[in-house]
UniProtKB/TrEMBL annotation:
Signal sequence segment: none
A Pfam family this chain is assigned to: PRC
Stated name of the protein: PRC-barrel domain-containing protein
Ranges of residues in domain PRC-barrel: 94-160
Region (Disordered): 162-195
């Protein structure tokens, strides 16, 4: 299911072992190369680690009551995510990042990330258009396959192209108003002979 990534922030993290809430999500660590969410930063009174994280593979289920994990043992520290530590320390903030195409045309700024709740992968970017372009298009949706590169300054996407068709262009047809002009013949009325 596709869902705005923001909707999973401030989400409770529930322990199956105790049946209670152990923390809530406050942010996510995204790999800009793959657009995968690697872990959620979590916060809670009962946590020993600060900052504390919950890896995606340790989430048993995402339900209407929040993230469900086996126990508080799933909570890790920053030192435990060694391979992705730099993504937390120098994160790439995709929200409000400029989006340009290959021709360096400014398309807008990222307004929202849309993720797949099964794979925890960013699937779409909702882009807020610049003022003058927003008069005709208020937002633009860019699929992950259109993204070429993510730099510290901008997200570069493929330039949209219009496919040419092999059909000949439509010839101009005169406008025919069905309510004007000749009327189709009407049935004749039948007169009854009464004596």
């Amino acid at each position: 299911m596709l869902l705005p990534a923001q909707e999973l922030l401030n989400m409770p993290v529930m322990s199956l072992q105790t049946g209670t809430e152990i923390a809530e999500t406050v942010g996510c660590v995204i790999d800009p190369d793959t657009l995968n969410i690697l872990a959620y930063e979590i916060n809670g009174k009962s946590l020993d680690e600060h900052p504390a994280f919950l890896k995606i593979e340790d989430i048993r289920e995402l339900s209407d009551i929040g993230f469900i994990v086996d126990s508080s043992d799933e909570v890790i520290s920053l030192d435990d995510i060694v391979t992705h530590k730099q993504l937390y320390e120098a994160p790439v903030q995709l929200e409000s990042m400029h989006v340009i195409d290959e021709q360096h045309t400014k398309l807008g700024k990222v307004e929202q990330l849309v993720m797949d709740t099964q794979s925890f992968r960013v699937e779409q970017l909702q882009v807020r258009r610049p003022f003058f372009k927003s008069l005709s298009d208020t937002s633009l949706v860019i699929h992950r396959q259109q993204i070429i590169a993510i730099t510290p300054d901008a997200i570069i996407v493929r330039t949209p192209t219009v496919r040419e068709s092999n059909q000949s262009p439509l010839e101009k047809q005169p406008l025919i108003n069905p309510f004007r002009g000749t009327r189709p013949p009407q049935p004749e009325s039948v007169k009854s002979d009464r004596h």
